[in-house]
Target: FadR family transcriptional regulator
Amino acid sequence: MEMKKLTVPTHKELFIKRMQEAILSGELAAGTRIPPERELAEKMGVSRAVINAGIIALVSQGFLEVQPRQGTFVADYRHEGSLETLNAILDLKGDIFSDREIRSILEIRWALEHLTLKNAIERSRDEDLCEMHKIVEAIRGAADFRAAAEEAFCFQKKLAMVGDNEILAMIITSFRKPVVALWTRFCSRYGSQLLYEHTLKSLEYIRKRDYEGAVRWLDHIMQDALEGETSIYNR
Model:
């Protein structure tokens, strides 16, 4: 086991996390005016500079909005949030997701992977296919479930990169934490060998430039993960 240096969250990080939790739980509803910085600093026992820096970060993440001469309010992040909002939510949740969130993540992955497959089949070169094969074999040789999940994510990221769509690759990367967490759960239930076999079969369709076959296979494994024998919902 690798021993890593322990780090203590800063006051700013603790303030941001507390505010995120209050907003996401509904304790602070959209449209709620939060107290002035000085009042928050006194109540939370930190400096006003900490509160100010935290509010700036929360505004950037889409959780708060500043209205001139009126104050700072909780933003409607569900309708106005950005990719930065999503990343903040995923960071806060870690590996813990509700069944509804699992379905949402899988459905987004499903839609994105249709495009990554199409682009990879049309644009990948022989050397790209060799690199993808090495990643697939790394899934089989992974030391544990988490490592296998990380390699599976590397495969998906590689698909996006060889498809020559930088924006798509960045969107795929933004989902790294939840996707790796869900694949780790998949491996813990059904074994990393099955993840290896699924990924290898996808690669075979890409090698044959068979988009229709690749999509049928993707639809099958995603439907199975949602409602079939390899479901990854909470038990």
